[in-house]
Amino acid sequence: KMTQQMRDLQLAQARKPPGPSSPNAAKRLYRNLSGKFRVNYTSFDEGSLVGRGEKEKLRKSYLFQSNAALFEAVELQDLDRVQELLKQYSPEELDLNTPNSEGLLPLDIAIMTNNAPIARALLQAGAKESPHFVSLESRSLHLSTLVREAEQRVNELTAQVVNEAPNADCSEKEKQLKAWEWRFRLYKRMKAGFEHARVPDAPANVQLSVASSSSVQVTFWEPLSVNSAVVTKYKVEWSCSPTFSPPLGEAVVDKLKNLHFTIRGLVSGTAYYVRVSAYNMKGWGPPQASVPPFAIPSNWREYDGRAPRRRGQAEALDHLLGQVKTVHQHCVCHEPCKNQPQSRKHSVSKSLKHLFHPGSKFLKTLKRGLYLTAIFYKDDNILVTHEDQIPVVEIDDTYSCLLMQDFLWFTKVSCMWDEILWLRQCVTVSQSSCSCILQTRFKMLLAISQMQGLLGIQDLGQVFFEPVKDKQGNILIVTLKEVKTNQTFESVRWVPICKLQTSRKSVSSPEEPTALDMLLISVQDKLAYHQRSSHALSPGLYLGYLKLCSAVDQIRVLVPEQLPNILCHVKIRSNPNISREEWEWLQKMASVEEPVPTEPEADTSQNPLFHELQVAIKELMTLVNIPLQEAKDFRLYSQEVLDFGDQVSFLLLLPPSDDVCTAPGQNNPYTPRSGFLTLPLQIFELGEKR
């Protein structure tokens, strides 16, 4: 009895004119079939389709063809084609886990022909084995049936070809015979692959670590043996007994992109033994005990019972701010601010459509003074005014020397864009003191309000870590904000950055460019900084390097350009947790003032953290251009582990106490390689909190 899939193959081949002879009939069929799929795909003209129903029918037809193409690619062991299809379509579109008319899935064919690369690609895409194979006997019976039916069909076609006179019908039967002969060989190869397979060896490199005070994590590799069938899933078991009697629990891991599993809901202080076994089409292999054989859920904070440093801080600050605002609401001087910018007479919409309002107070040119500019960008486009200018408003035209403390105060204000009106009212109360500092800061708040009003947006984004200054006495404070929505605006247009840079007519000389020209020249660098400063680290434990340098009015910290919101660092491991035992070892090492571990010792196998630190320190010293022998004088900060949420933690590596902060004029013989910058400490702290 011919299956439906074979009929489809024959019909597809029958419509194709005879091609050049090929030693492999199956490959010719596959090549012709794949070519047909490609022509059908590129010939779709959606503009000529009538109605959505017809479009949907064509889409389903094409997806069906893609499913057939995947089966063909797996059967022909065409890894490139399999990867191409998996990349082009989702598992649902490919019907990756829907059996064909023979009751097989692509993964079944791959593992029974022992094609490990294709099987791994399918497994990582979410492929499963056929649900029909509930036992070894059912799989063996199914394969025997496929082989017998294919052999019977080959015999029938052979008899027809031999007994019939040569004609067009006979030629067609010869093609069918070749296709069935190839399929008969495929099924026999699958049957032989199943019969000769054996259960898998135990997984390799089974490592156990403490993930938290109530969980442990086990990681493992595929079995090292290459003689067994492809592994399709793993089983993790745990118990409080080394004999696993009684077992406490087990879990099956069938998502094989990352071979690890976290056992949760455990009791702190209790030892848990873990083992892992692998499964293939012949069944479960022997279990492999973890190294170390057991782990005790714990956290470094249990060493002295300290609470997280940041616990309740945000809530306390919100409560304090609420109290301050409540007090100011009862102040007699606390009236709605009358010093609104002139542009507030015009309509202030809560959108960007009034950005080009002819009455706006955006500046075209700069005089000697202090200014605020807001850069809004989306992809490679930037938002500009009606005159193709980046929005700029004046803060103070008599202020030509921005004090660092005023700038740092402005950066703190950027955390409260929604509270600018309230802050203005508070500063107005104190203006009678005629303090120059208060006058400047009040003007900063006025400029912020004006920019918000003209743009119709409260959140002006993140402040760039340093102002733009020119030799004419102009100073630009720059804010940056990425617009991620696809919203369109009536009166606003996005201009490509490169077009804005080439079309702007500079009014300054190349030797002494104005602050606006300097901003345009360096705008891509500033946008890159803004994007990088919002990137997050992947989960894990990191080793950070703390290096400061001081100036007259500020302290700066060394950070990597690629991730300026975090210290220079290298990753120690993927598990962010420091267990109580590991923390006790770190405390012991600090109490006896042992040097930082840079050389291997005999007992590193008993202390994985020791070896991990050695590797990380060597990598970090190379990164910041410090000779390894200098690291012997460095120290690990032993007061706490710096936790950034639940998934990222840091150990700090400190230079000798005299070298933690380089003073002005002090020689630093080891200059970091390119790829680093120094940020004002307050800017770094704000960036780390974002």
Give a structural overview.
- This protein has 4 domains: 57-196, Serine Threonine Protein Phosphatase 5, Tetratricopeptide repeat (Alpha Horseshoe), CATH 1.25.40; 207-298, Immunoglobulins (Immunoglobulin-like), CATH 2.60.40.10; 361-534, no CATH class; 540-591 and 603-688, no CATH class.
- The protein has 19 helices and 24 strands.
- The strands form 5 sheets. Strands 9, 10, 11, 12, 13, 14 and 15 form a 7-stranded mixed beta sheet that branches. Strands 3, 4, 6, 7 and 8 form a 5-stranded antiparallel beta sheet that branches.
- Helix content is 38%, strand content 18%.
- Helix 2 (25-42) packs antiparallel against helix 3, helix 3 (51-75) runs antiparallel to helix 4 and helix 12 runs antiparallel to helix 13.
- With 690 residues, it is α+β, with helices and mostly antiparallel strands.
How do the strands and helices of this protein lay out in sequence?
Elements: H1 4-14, H2 25-42, H3 51-75, H4 79-88, H5 91-94, H6 106-112, H7 116-124, H8 136-163, H9 168-196, E1 204-212, E2 215-221, E3 233-239, E4 249-253, E5 260-263, E6 272-280, E7 283-284, E8 288-295, H10 313-329, E9 370-378, E10 381-383, E11 392-396, H11 404-413, H12 420-429, H13 436-455, E12 462-463, E13 468-469, E14 475-482, E15 494-496, H14 497-503, H15 515-521, H16 523-532, E16 540-545, E17 548-550, E18 555-560, E19 568-573, H17 580-591, H18 608-623, E20 635-636, E21 642-644, E22 648-654, E23 661-662, E24 676-680, H19 681-689
Parallel strand pairs: 9-14, 16-22, 17-23
Antiparallel strand pairs: 1-2, 2-5, 3-4, 3-6, 6-7, 6-8, 9-10, 9-11, 10-15, 12-14, 13-14, 16-19, 17-18, 18-24, 20-22, 21-22
Helix pairs in contact: 2-3, 3-4, 3-6, 4-7, 6-7, 8-9, 12-13
